[in-house]
Design goal:
The complex is a heterodimer. Chain A is an alpha/beta fold. Chain A is built from seven helices and six strands, in the order βαβββαβαβαααα. In chain A, strands 2-3-1-4-5-6 form a six-stranded mixed sheet, sandwiched between helices. In chain B, strand 6, helix 6 and strand 7 form a beta-alpha-beta unit. The chains are: A alpha/beta, B alpha/beta. At the A-B interface, helix 1, strand 2, helix 2 and helix 3 of A face strand 1, strand 8, helix 9 and strand 19 of B.
Chain lengths: ~190, ~600
């Protein structure tokens, strides 16, 4: 069984990304379970999706210390959830911070501090540069797809780039496919 | 073919496969997706509706079930409180067609007011209950629930919890065909609830309880698994956590998995009690299985050692997890202690990120206008259930009370009648107004309360994911119907002042509240502006940096997620800003363009 924790901020597309991983696993005749944050937290709060794939999966929730991979849609959220990672696990993280609503943050929040911490702490840490996604796609909307590209390239979940491409084709509206395929490629090249 | 389905989607498919004819509900996390899915996959023969509230939903479904049609009601756990009047009564009357009440409980709670347990409601109401532990089980159980409902001629509850409702697993998509039953209402005295009938039927309900209990002992999802001497009793999602927690040590344990918490499958539990030396009970919400086991051991004179919530081996509130179960097992000396990974001590400071009103949310503008209009007046702001509960957060601080659906309007009247000097305001959303706010307004008028009613009309049921309501002129299936205008209702009720204003037009919004402050009686301001999440192609604003003096007034006063300070000057995040323009009215330099 492989477990992947996707974490970010409400509205970043973590739910869709976790479904695509699970769908890709299903297409390989594996079993899959996901658990997602739906509800009040989606309004700009912290969101986490659990995805577990393999021959048999009993529980949808990943216990602390059991994630093979953490996909951080936001540097601070990757740090917040780091205790879910296995000792030899991998982190794939996007470099762009989403500032919390100014009224709630007493201290300034520096994404670089988070990224440096992750790099020092985790031997297998890959940072996905948002600028590259923006340059290729003209928008950061397909960030989730780029992160999936990195995930596929890493081999951590046993899913290939082709598996993810096929899952995307089933899930994404045709007119959005080209931009998502570009994002997928950018993500894969980042590893 | 198997498809990845969310627990709630699996319930919808299961109900369709079971031949449901009528499905009603009111949106509420984590139950909402059942009806949404059913409306989407409806082959055309199911009547699906968002009812105005759970009580109405239950009554519509009961009427359908009287004819022999199969009917489904969906709601979250607090919705069950609203529906409890018809549901407690209908069990005395009975039904002809299968009636399944799907209730989604919310351990945590994650998005609810309470951590109540529907299994207890089932026992209290004498309604048989099923409890599913996964989406694939939910798919089968909803079909079984319809069959049992017809077998025993009464309603049946299917209870689920957030981690089943909102988790996905592969489920076989069924072939469906239209229900074969020909609906017919047979007139007879059995449909009219009278004291004599209730006396007789309560005897029947009591008599059938042991009968159903014996029947449930044969129910395949009630299981005894393993032959170890340490017993673990569980049900619902806790079964999944238990399996993960004892992985590799299964030989030590014997699991009693309870899929039908009421009536409790006593004979199955009895063999578990006599065959184990020590028992731990893992269940979320209330210690229902635990109490049943303690009761059973007392009844049968069995000396059992049962641990769970009652002896504080398991936390009284909050979600369970495999890690929490491991902790309890090691505290009882059953499993070796495993150091549980904790957030590292050297972790850099990670910012708090509570949920907030979206950038451009019209509720922010409404709250701000009221706040400014009341700057020299003592006022109390009664909130209600919806996105706008988030108006409690700083810097708005505009929700002083929040209790239950529609409760703000009536609570404000109690404040008034207690003769406090503060002016009571009641904020209520459009969907909540239709659900149960109307009654409160009538109560205020007839009992001469004075209050300012603020209707936050964003043209949708936003918090639960944009469902329709009677004010919109659209049904769940997309049919166009006549919209019911809130201002027409209020005027018809006899309110003398009903102002309809766009809250994003700040000067007029402020003036409307000031006018209301000068008036007496029940007076209403309807702030009407669409939910920003439904808007497309909005244009973000910018700060003209050279002109910004860095007063940060826009940031401090509004708490908009798109606004932050960079080197003391205000910055607008163009990916978040929807161009609502509220900040423009606040900027003393007029430098937001």
């Amino acid at each position: 069984m492989k477990s992947c924790l996707l974490c970010g901020v409400g509205g970043q597309g973590t739910v869709l990304a976790s479904r695509i991983i699970a769908d890709a696993a299903l297409a390989k005749n594996w079993f899959a379970r996901t658990a997602e944050t739906i509800g009040m937290a989606q309004r700009g709060g912290c969101v986490v999706s659990h995805v577990r794939i393999g021959e048999q999966v009993d529980s949808p929730l990943i216990p602390p210390g059991k994630a093979d991979l953490i996909i951080g849609f936001e540097p601070g959220e990757a740090v917040r959830n780091l205790h879910y990672l296995k000792p030899d696990g991998m982190v794939i993280v996007c470099d762009k911070a989403i500032q919390p609503t100014a009224a709630f943050s007493s201290q300034p929040y520096d994404a670089n501090e988070m990224l440096i911490y992750l790099q020092n702490k985790i031997s297998r840490c890959h940072i996905i540069l948002c600028q590259n996604i923006y340059d290729a796609c003209g928008t950061l909307k397909p960030l989730n797809t780029a992160l999936l590209g990195a995930m596929a390239q890493s081999g951590m979940m046993g899913l290939s780039l082709e598996n993810i491409q096929n899952a995307l084709q089933k899930k994404i509206k045709p007119h959005l496919l080209p931009i998502n395929m570009r994002a997928l490629e950018i993500g894969a090249k980042s590893i | 073919m198997k498809e990845l389905l969310m627990g709630n989607e699996a319930v919808a498919w299961g109900a369709l496969a079971a031949g449901v004819s009528v499905a009603c509900g009111y949106p509420g996390t984590p139950s909402t997706e059942v009806l949404e899915t059913l409306a989407k996959i409806n082959p055309g023969w199911v009547h699906v509706e968002w009812s105005v509230n759970e009580k109405s939903a239950a009554e519509v479904a009961i009427g359908a079930a009287y004819t022999g049609a199969r009917a489904l009601i969906t709601m979250k756990q607090v919705g069950l409180n609203v529906a409890s009047d018809p549901l407690l009564c209908v069990n005395y009357v009975g039904v002809k067609g299968g009636l399944v009440i799907y209730v989604a409980d919310d351990p945590g709670p994650i998005s609810s007011q309470t951590e109540q347990d529907t299994r207890h409601f089932a026992k209290y109401a004498c309604i048989p209950a099923f409890d599913c532990s996964s989406p694939e089980e939910a798919f089968h159980m909803v079909q079984d629930a319809f069959a049992y409902s017809e077998k025993y001629g009464g309603p049946v509850i299917l209870r689920s919890t957030t981690r089943v409702c909102h988790s996905c697993a592969p489920v076989e998509i069924p072939q469906v065909s239209p229900p074969s039953v020909i609906p017919e209402f047979e007139k007879g005295s059995q449909w009219v609830i009278f004291p004599r009938l209730s006396f007789l039927n309560k005897q029947k309900l009591a008599a059938r309880e042991p009968e159903i209990s014996r029947d449930f002992c044969q129910y395949p999802f009630n299981q005894r698994i393993g032959e170890g001497k340490i017993g673990i009793a569980c049900g619902g999602i806790s079964y999944a956590y238990v399996k993960e927690a004892i992985e590799g040590q299964e030989h030590l344990f014997q699991i009693l998995k309870i899929a039908t918490p009421y009536p409790f499958p006593e004979d199955l539990a009895l063999s578990f009690l006599t065959d184990t030396e020590k028992i731990l009970v893992f269940e979320e919400l209330d210690p229902l299985i635990e109490d049943e086991l303690i009761y059973l051991s007392g009844k049968k004179g069995i000396c059992a050692h049962i641990s769970g919530k009652r002896d504080h081996s398991v936390a009284a509130a909050g979600e369970l997890s495999a890690a929490a179960i491991r902790r309890t097992l090691s505290a009882h000396g059953i499993c070796a202690e495993v150091a549980e990974p904790q957030p590292a001590a050297d972790l850099p400071h990670v910012p708090n990120r509570p949920p907030v009103l979206c950038a451009g949310c019209p509720h922010r503008a409404s709250f701000y206008a009221v706040k400014k209009a009341c700057s020299e007046q003592q006022a109390i702001f009664c909130g209600d259930i919806g996105c706008y509960t988030l108006g409690n957060a700083p810097p708005l601080n505009m929700v002083d009370t929040c209790l239950c659906m529609g409760g703000g309007v009536t609570l404000a009247q109690g404040l008034f009648h207690s003769k406090i000097q503060d002016i009571p305001f009641a904020f209520i959303g459009d969907s909540t107004f239709f659900a149960s706010g109307i009654n409160g307004v009538i109560n205020a008028l007839t009992n001469q309360a004075q209050l300012i009613l603020i209707i936050l009309d964003n043209g949708t049921t936003a918090m639960t994911g944009h469902q329709s309501h009677p004010g919109l002129g659209k049904t769940i299936s997309g049919q166009t119907v006549t919209p019911i205008r809130i201002e027409h209702i209020l005027t018809a009720l006899g309110l003398e002042s009903v102002q309809v204003v766009d809250p994003l037009d700040y000067p007029r919004a402020l003036a409307a509240v000031k006018t209301a402050l000068q008036q007496n009686g029940v007076r209403a301001v309807i702030f009407r502006s669409p939910c920003v999440a439904l808007l497309k192609d909005t244009v973000p604003l910018k700060v003209d940096e050279p002109r910004c003096i860095g007063c940060n007034r826009c940031i401090r006063e509004l708490g908009c997620p798109a606004l932050s300070a960079h080197q003391h000057k205000a910055v607008i995040d163009a990916t978040l800003c929807n161009g609502c323009g509220l900040c423009r009215h606040i900027c003393p330099q007029s430098c937001i363009v």
